[in-house]
Design brief:
The protein has about 80 residues and is mostly helical. It is built from four helices and no strands. Helix 1 (about 10-20) runs antiparallel to helix 2 and helix 2 (about 30-40) crosses helix 3.
Length: about 80
């Protein structure tokens, strides 16, 4: 069973975009995650979990894209 998300997809996309734009001005990725997460009202770990799949979908990180995962689940009847 799924629960309603506290953050809209627009907020998630904006937070990921902010991280990518502002990350170079921080000493580490974790410092950037911590700062930006505080600005949008989530935990750094939550933001990190949004960033990883977004980077895979954008081709910045290797892995299976979201669309491939959904297709696999539909194909195997797990939806």
């Amino acid at each position: 069973m799924t629960t309603a998300s506290r953050y809209s997809p627009e907020v998630r996309e904006r937070a990921v975009r902010m991280l990518h734009e502002q990350e170079p001005s921080y000493a580490s990725r974790w410092a950037a995650l911590t700062s930006i997460a505080g600005k949008i009202g989530c935990t750094p770990e939550t933001l990190r979990k949004w960033v990883r799949p977004a980077e895979i979908d954008d081709g910045r990180r290797p892995g299976r894209k979201s669309s491939e995962i959904v297709y696999s689940r539909v194909k195997n009847g797990r939806v």
